[in-house]
UniProtKB/TrEMBL annotation:
Residues 120-312 form the DUF4097 domain. InterPro entries: Toastrack_DUF4097. This is DUF4097 domain-containing protein. Keywords: Membrane, Transmembrane, Transmembrane helix. The chain crosses the membrane at residues 35-52, 64-89. It comes from Chengkuizengella marina. It holds the Pfam family DUF4097. The keyword Transmembrane applies.
Amino acid sequence: MIKVGRYTAASLLVFVGATLLMDQTSDTSYVEKIVQWWPFIIIFFGIEYLIFQFKNKNDRNVRIDIKSVVLSFAIVLILFGLTSGFPFLNQLELVYSDNENDLKFEIEAQMIPFYENTNKLYVENLNGKINIKPTNEKDFKFETTIYVSEIDQEKAERIVNESKLEWIDEGSTLQVYAKGKEYYRFGFKYKPKVNLIIHVPQSREIDIQLKMKNGSVIVTDVPILDSLDIDTTNGDIHITNINGRVAADTTNGNIEVYSIDGKTVLDTTNGDIIADSIFGDFIADTTNGKIEGKIIEGKVEAESTNGSITLVEVNDEVTVDTTNGKIKVKSQVVDGSWYLDTINESIEVVLPNNGDFTFRAQSNAGGFLSDFPFHIDKKIMGGIVGNGEHKITAYTNNGSIIVKKWDQDF
């Protein structure tokens, strides 16, 4: 029996190997061009089959070597992946980010005019960090650093040259887009990391909106008109000294905010939330992380799954809800209703000696301890301090409830 296809497969291997070697040594892209000629593989198989049929003088069976056929088409698929990035991976948006140990390129700073009618800055960076700080300049200044994965210098420079910072001024909004040139390595799609330092004129207030992926954010001392909105993934958010509404959302990152004069809304998954000196309503939500808030001069809503919640010096209504996390609240002033709820952990509160509140607590499988003369009856503890104006409710299913006076350790 004669098997047909081995010569075609072997010739294809030699041809493809030589072409790849040429591309690697001569900075060409012949492999990308030859992929489109894949139907010739079928033609060569047919030619090889006919040749063996004509030369078969001993009436031996001539059959196609299935393994050789599969090998040939596998080579074509691999070539297609190496040059086009495996489309099925692209559909899953598997973009592999580069890190800061790669080749680094500092780009010349770019100035963007701050027109009189501009009152909002929108920045989109889908792979990289953003650091926003004030400047005495009258226009925006963008400093760009690009990191390209470890390929040769010439190819990296070409990728950097094809990466760009685009900006559009439409009406009252300045839109800026960091566009890193996509490239492929071993069949996987990469994007260069583009880090931005943005200098915002401090002479005028402006709203800021950041849309990001795979990058952390730092915003410090920037004059905000009404709001600062940040949305990122795989990165931390750090905000300091902002006068205006703040909204920050991240996945796989921590959020830290300090000295915010305005409503603050924070949301993260797989990260902690830390807040200090918030002069406005405070809303925080995290999964698989803790929440810590200190000196909050507005209503508080804090929710965590698999994390503790700690609040110190809260001066308005407080709503705290956590699963599998401890709750600790300490304040010299009670000036609103408190509702504290956890499923599988304890609750500890520190209250003023001379406050006006009505306290009620329930624990289904835990004990009670109080510095105040509260009444305890099986699963319930309660009492009134002062005129009882504000209601404090604490509930846990599988934990203890501890109440201390302010002068006790927290």
